[in-house]
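User: quick one - fold this with coenzyme A bound?
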Amino acid sequence: MITNIEPVPEITDIVSLLGECGLPVSDISLSQPPLFFGNRSDSNLSAVVGLEIFGSVALLRSLAVAPAYRGRGLARELVIYAEHFAGSHGVEFLFLLTTTATGFFARLGYVPASRSTAPSTIRTTSQFSGLCPASSAFLSKSVAGLTRRSSGTAAKRGSPSTLR
Ligand SMILES: CC(C)(COP(=O)(O)OP(=O)(O)OC[C@H]1O[C@@H](n2cnc3c(N)ncnc32)[C@H](O)[C@@H]1OP(=O)(O)O)[C@@H](O)C(=O)NCCC(=O)NCCS
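Assistant: Sure. Structure tokens for the protein plus coenzyme A:
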């Protein structure tokens, strides 16, 4: 599947999709929102992922695919796109919290991280400091050296090793 992934500036569309998918939205600032990337289908936002970048580390957040578009590899493509975007902007490590998709991220190479040694910038995010339950898995992945992938170059579903 070739997916067109683009920056998504329309915060109202993002909040609507995240709400539909049961993800928190209360910390999304309208004045300084995270970077969001997504895919539109028939002008509707079908999938989104967010990045909060703090120099050499970043929080990957708000990964959501509308129910009608799940199971097509969209989430995987979005995460890989975000990894390459982050890596090409000086990020060395991505961190994330999840209660629902630990296995999904593990298959993409994310490993458990220590909360006590998490970078201070990550610790001060709303997601880390309270919005995500303490029972959330805290995961990280090195993205150092990844280069930017242009939209539409996503590799075929089922071939994650070809994506880098
Ligand atoms: C989790 C979510 C983003 C997955 O979206 P998706 O587009 O259906 O996922 P993909 O099609 O890219 O899945 C890729 C692979 O991961 C698997 N997978 C999908 N969701 C998974 C989950 N929650 N846990 C473990 N594996 C999962 C798929 O079965 C697929 O496996 P395959 O390659 O063997 O077929 C989507 O179900 C969703 O929006 N859920 C609600 C919000 C959420 O939980 N977000 C994640 C936490 S921030």
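One thing worth noting: The chain has a mean pLDDT of 88.
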